[in-house]
Amino acid sequence: MADSLSSGIGEEQEKEKEDTEKGGKASKTEKNEERDGVTETLGFHDKNAGSKSKERNLSDLSLVRFITTELTRGYFLEHNEAKYTERRERVYTCLRIPKELEKLMTFGFFLCLDAFLYVFTLLPLRVILALLRLITLPCCGLSGSRLLQPAQVCDVLKGFIMVLCYSMMSYVDYSMMYHLIRGQSVIKLYIIYNMLEVADRLFSSFGQDILDALYWTATEPKEKKRAHIGVIPHFLMAVLYVFLHAILIMVQATTLNVAFNSHNKSLLTIMMSNNFVEIKGSVFKKFEKNNLFQMSNSDIKERFTNYILLLIVCLRNMEQFSWNPDHLWVLFPDVIMVIASEVTVDVVKHAFITKFNDISADVYGEYRASLAFDLVSSRQKNAYTDYSDSVSRRMGFIPLPLALLLIRVVTSSVKIQGSLSFMCVLLFYLGMITLKVLNSIVLLGTSCAFVKAANMEEKLFDPPPSVVSSRANSRAHRTKHDSTSPQKEPSADKSKVPPTADSSPPANMDERSAPTLPMSDPDTFLTTPDEGDEDKIINANTGLEGDRLEHRTPKKDLLEIDRFTICGNRID
């Protein structure tokens, strides 16, 4: 019994010892956790934080240690590789912009030069051939055939506009205009020059529409001869536009001439500083590719126009100094300053626009391909417009007023007397024709290379589906009209078409003019083909206005932009 009691007491004592040991360990762990918690709040969490905190000295928290840490700490840029790569690409893009932009500007300059030389060289010859055809064709007894082709009608209208406007320009005194502008103050001339630039853009945006309305009114098929009277008001409107635009450019050239001849050159400096205001108005705006393309075309047109204005200023100044070649070197620094400021503003503007909008420099290659496509497509059999008109629609450059002003200045500055002078004029004209032909050949070859590089070559050889379908629709409507005209009007239930669409003459005229709309729309030659082209063509063939609207609204391509714009904002 005693043994059993002693064993039981021993077991109870061992259990009490184990309980006390477990309690001591728990208390120690709680104390360690509390210490760890304190060190975590201070930001020095470590497994041996307690032992390290005891060994830490006050010298570790000194100013020397802080400075040493600031001098020796490091970081790794590869932890944010995407960000720094993007920044580097932006720098590379800004460095590539001058080269790519000048390539586009050079190509566009020669496009404008080709359209400008066309007015002096080939247009007079085409007008003479059209008039000879108009005179000789009735004499040959071919009364059933058409007298003039649509292109010849447009050429004759352009020739008549140039002749009438030149006769009106002969009554404008350039010298009186020069002295009138020179008598104004510097600030007033600066305001006038800014107003003239805005007015020139507005005239260019609306002028091509006036000329296109005249060409279409003169060439559209008409049932009655009385309908030809509508050409007269359109012709008078076109003559008035070309005359007013030529006067506006003359005032602009005269203001620039006054700035060149000022003694302190303050006006010229103010006018050149005006170009840098353009950076403020365009750089900090949001631009897309299409908007940048429109602004690039506007810059090409503006640069070519400035070159012609500088040529006019030099001609007028050389005439005043009896064509002394020494005076040309006096004008040379000012001319270089104007050109350099224009180029600098364009480069800075495009560089920062592409930087702020994350646009690659390769987009200017696409712009060149689009301009080249216009040139190559105008040489096809299914072309719907002349090349000079295509440049006018794309860039807003209308060569008729500028060519009229240059002819007026040259004829007033250069006196032609004697047979030798006429021979010089003839040789100069032949030289211009040679330059025009060589420029056209080089441009055509370069454009074909650009089109081939952009993989747009196949679209040139395929006939546009909208043109073929529109011709078929026009023939179908004509035969349907001829067959149903002696009969009664069909009911709306059987044809499921409103009776006014077939019976009323205005509806028939709309239907006959509707097939020509796809011909003036270069949507069939897109750089990026749309997915629903077949459906869109079918909807366009139905002849419904709603379908045509659905067919045109979703398309936003570079080749679709045919309207001149101001600072990249499209005018619809």
Structural class of the helices, strands and pairings?
mainly alpha
Order of helices and strands: HHHHHHHHHHHHHHHHHHHHHHH
Total strand segments:
0
Shape: elongated
Uncertain residue segments: 34-45, 465-475, 480-555, 561-572
How big a fraction of the residues is strand? under 5%
Main sheet characteristics: none
Rg estimate, integer Å? 39 Å
Q: Count helical runs.
A: 23
**Alpha-carbon distance between the termini?**
117 Å
Q: Give average pLDDT, whole number.
A: 75
Helix content: over 70%
Pfam family, one: DUF747
Membrane topology: Multi-pass membrane protein
InterPro entries: Tatp1 (IPR008010)
Keywords: Chondrogenesis, Membrane, Osteogenesis, Transmembrane, Transmembrane helix
Question: What attributes does this structure have?
Answer:
mainly alpha; 572 residues; 0% strand
Walk me through the structure.
- The protein has 572 residues and is an all-alpha fold.
- It has 23 helices and no strands.
- It has helices spanning 2-41, 49-55, 63-72, 81-120, 122-139, 150-169, 174-182, 186-219, 231-261, 266-282, 289-320, 325-356, 363-377, 387-395, 399-413, 419-453, 458-461, 465-484, 492-495, 500-503, 505-513, 533-541, 545-552.
- Helix 4 runs parallel beside helix 13 (363-377), helix 4 (81-120) packs across helix 14 and helix 9 (231-261) packs across helix 10.
- The protein is elongated, with a radius of gyration of 39 Å.
- Residues 34-45, 465-475, 480-555 and 561-572 have low confidence and may be disordered.
